[in-house]
Amino acid sequence: MTSEHVVIYTDGSSRGNPGPGGYGVILKYGTLERELAQGFHFTTNNRMELMAVIEGLKALKKNGLHVTVYSDSQYVVKAIKEGWLKKWIATNFKGGKKNPDLWRELHALLQLHHVTFKWVKGHADNPYNNKCDELATNAAINGSK
Prior knowledge:
Number of helices: 5
CATH superfamily: Ribonuclease H-like superfamily/Ribonuclease H
Helix content: 25-40%
Radius of gyration: 14 Å
Shape: globular
Order of helices and strands: EEEHEHHHEH
Distance between the termini: 36 Å
């Protein structure tokens, strides 16, 4: 991994769907690691999964980086990898697709970097995903805004 490659692990959580929720993010850039987490009073799991990716990308200090995003959310990963997001943008979210505000924000951020999405099984043996889950869960319980 070169210093121009960033790895972002993400997770979202909600205690009830909707209910209090939070996201957790770990950014790895070379030998540096940074954790992000925030909680919300009333949200959904899918919104928190999206927020995790958005906040991870917003934390990057320069554009044009090669980024690998690991998420246990098939909702997020499939929307990118299978082209759903491009279709939703092209049709202005016709048909009542949920979370258009966050999808538009994510789409704009994806234009700034070379981003690859990878799905990782949640609650399994990936220590970074497990840590993101812990960050998201704690944010949902303790840090709702």
